[in-house]
Specification:
Layout: H1 6-10, H2 41-57, H3 59-64, H4 84-101, H5 112-130, E1 137-139, E2 142-144, H6 154-164, H7 171-200, H8 207-221, H9 229-241, H10 247-271, H11 286-298, H12 304-328, H13 336-344, H14 355-372, H15 376-379, E3 388-392, E4 404-407, E5 417-421, H16 434-441, H17 446-455, H18 470-486, H19 494-518, H20 524-535, H21 539-551, H22 558-577, H23 583-593, H24 601-614
Parallel strand pairs: 3-5
Antiparallel strand pairs: 1-2, 4-5
């Protein structure tokens, strides 16, 4: 969106030290050979200890993974702690966890234990590196500079979390919902205190981010308390179960606690002395901070200059492929960007701006999932079900949400993966762009990768469920877009293939504009103009994307950098194995890890090669 999402990245793993800073997790899984009996039992015990500590620090994560039951049932009634004390406790847990892993000799590990160890160490070292920058949020997946933005903060995430993910199956679930509802105002106030504290350090979001966030908050605040999703969600579900009606109590909580806290946060945002400087170069130690974010989000040591150069090179190469398709369809006048701009607004490919039009887009995306499924035996031997539900991004958060994102299925198998598409503006979605997005978000992209966890819980390391890596996760999904092209999805759909290349080019241009904004001091306008000119995307959609990169520096670089490394390692495996190379073995070796830092990917592939050679 992600095209795909920052929401997923921001919230992935224990990425940030906040309660509502973590909606869906990028879950990881161990390889099938990593059953408890096959690995080092002491390391497995260490992972269980660390995983339990991380889970206690992120009750929302427990709910998302279906782990807020049994011994952890109390977590279903809690939200995380975004206060300074909570942040300090997070850092203590990270430090003790890293010290525990430091007792193991990596040279003595084998198989999947190596994958899990490398992933855990990288994540915990990332959290430690983030302590250098005392603002925003930081954790095992990197950081975000601003506590509240158009896409991040309790105001934008709490209602969606409670409505879509908190289980209300009985009276206990309803009571837990109400307990969490009572904590929402506390979290908003904790964030407000951090907004003020960060501002005193010179950490202030750009004016356009603050304006967008305030606009969404005003929209939320304008809904009568009794009609807010906080209230209607629990009222509807308890009514279906025949439970006592909580409407009055929930309405009182929203009226007396949540809305006043939101008013205080809006006042704090309005009091900020903002400007239009878009990049984090303006922050204290800004150059080093961006280098840290790039390392965390790409899991490489590539510099901003190297990433910028790669973006321009790959942008031009993909542009040439797009030109071939456009010419084959008789579209020869103007630059590639100008011709795709014209196609973006071509009424042949657009649905009407109506409920029926939005339903048609969702149905088309579901149809693309159905068309891809028959290709999956050529992609993978795993035979995963990977159930996916396509939904519209909720209207109350669509202004700040990314264009598309996917929330993994719960580990208990009770909730399918949810693929969200932002239908605020129908002009964002000419039909020829939807197939590639669907491959990215659903199958064989995020939903397929995440399905391994949900469908193989018996062989998943506990630690592996709680950490994720942006470059691997997004790199895999971008690679998934390529796989469906390689296996014939667009054989009779030239415009769909054009959409695939445009999506690839979009990710290459992300390398250009993200580094341009944060390392080369580009203005927001220059970044928008560059992306529109190079990709031919709708200007409104591009503006939303650029604002996302300003709120989540470095994250957008993970897609193409991850894709590049996955392709590099695939070609290395093909060269070594020759006729014995089966792309399904390669794909499955990656999916079965659940995700590793790119720095660890060569080792994963070496072990896959050795298994094939030994077979």
């Amino acid at each position: 969106m992600f095209d795909t999402t920052t929401r997923r990245q921001l919230l992935q793993g224990v990425a940030t030290a906040g309660a509502m800073t973590a909606l869906p997790a990028a879950a990881r899984a161990a390889t099938p050979t990593a059953t408890p009996a096959a690995g080092d039992p002491q390391l497995a015990a260490a992972f269980r200890t660390i995983a339990d500590q991380l889970l206690q620090r992120s009750p929302e994560q427990a709910t998302l993974l279906g782990m807020d039951r049994g011994a952890n049932a109390v977590l279903a009634s809690r939200l995380g702690d975004a206060s300074p004390a909570g942040e300090a406790e997070d850092r203590r847990v990270f430090a003790t966890s890293r010290a525990l892993l430091g007792k193991f000799d990596r040279r003595k590990l084998q198989g999947a234990d190596i994958n899990n160890y490398d992933a855990a160490v990288w994540a915990l070292d990332t959290a430690r590196a983030g302590e250098r920058f005392p603002f925003g949020y930081s954790g095992t997946s990197g950081g975000t500079p601003y506590v509240v933005t158009q896409q991040n903060g309790t105001y934008s995430q709490a209602a969606e979390f409670l409505d879509s993910y908190h289980r209300v199956e009985d009276a206990a679930g309803a009571d837990a919902y109400m307990s969490r509802l009572d904590q929402v105002a506390r979290n908003i106030d904790d964030e407000t205190a951090r907004i003020t504290a960060d501002a005193a350090k010179g950490v202030i979001p750009p004016n356009f981010i603050v304006t967008n966030a305030l606009g969404q908050q005003a929209q939320l605040r304008g809904v009568a308390a009794g009609e807010s999703r906080f209230v209607t969600s629990i009222a509807t579900r308890t009514r279906k179960l025949g439970l006592p009606d909580p409407t009055a109590r929930a309405t009182a909580t929203v009226t007396a606690k949540i809305y006043p806290a939101l008013d205080r946060q809006m006042a704090a945002l309005k009091a900020l002395k903002t400007n239009d400087d878009a990049g984090v170069w303006k922050l204290p130690d800004g150059e080093a901070y961006y280098a840290y974010l790039l390392k965390a989000q790409t899991t490489t040591s590539l510099s901003a200059a190297e990433i910028h150069k790669t973006g321009w090179e790959q942008n031009r190469a993909i542009e040439a492929e797009m030109d071939k398709i456009l010419r084959s369809q008789g579209l020869t006048k103007g630059t590639v960007g100008e011709r795709t701009v014209a196609l973006t607004s071509d009424p042949r490919f657009l649905q009407p701006d109506s409920d029926a039009g939005r339903d048609a887009v969702i149905a088309y995306c579901q149809g693309r999932i159905d068309a891809i499924r028959p290709l999956m035996p050529r992609v993978s031997k795993l035979g995963l079900k990977a159930d996916v539900e396509v939904r519209r991004v909720p209207v109350d958060i669509q202004d700040g949400a990314s264009l598309g994102y996917m929330n993994f299925a719960s580990a208990d198998g009770k909730r399918p993966a949810i693929y969200y598409i932002n239908l605020k503006e129908m002009g964002f979605w000419p039909q020829w762009t939807l197939a590639s997005l669907t491959a990215h978000e659903a199958i064989p992209g995020h939903a397929w990768q995440g399905a391994f966890l949900a469908e193989h819980p018996e062989i998943v390391s506990p630690m592996a469920q709680l950490i994720g890596f942006n470059a691997f996760t997004e790199g895999w999904a971008l690679y998934a877009e390529q796989l469906v092209d390689e296996f014939g999805l667009y054989d009779n759909d030239p415009f769909g293939r054009l959409g695939y290349f445009q999506a690839q080019r979009f990710r290459a241009v992300r390398l250009i504009v993200d580094t341009g904004l944060h390392a080369m001091r580009w203005s927001r306008t220059k970044a928008i103009d560059t992306m529109v000119a190079e990709t031919g995307r709708d200007r409104g959609a591009v503006t939303s994307e650029i604002d996302r990169y300003c709120a989540s520096p470095g994250q957008a670089c993970g897609y193409k950098i991850g894709h590049n490394e996955i392709l590099k390692q695939r070609e290395r495996a093909r060269a070594v194995l020759g006729a014995r190379f089966d792309v399904r073995d390669y794909n499955d070796a990656l999916v079965e890890t659940g995700g590793v830092p790119l720095a660890a990917l060569p080792g994963v592939v070496d072990r896959m090669i050795a298994r094939v050679q030994k077979a």
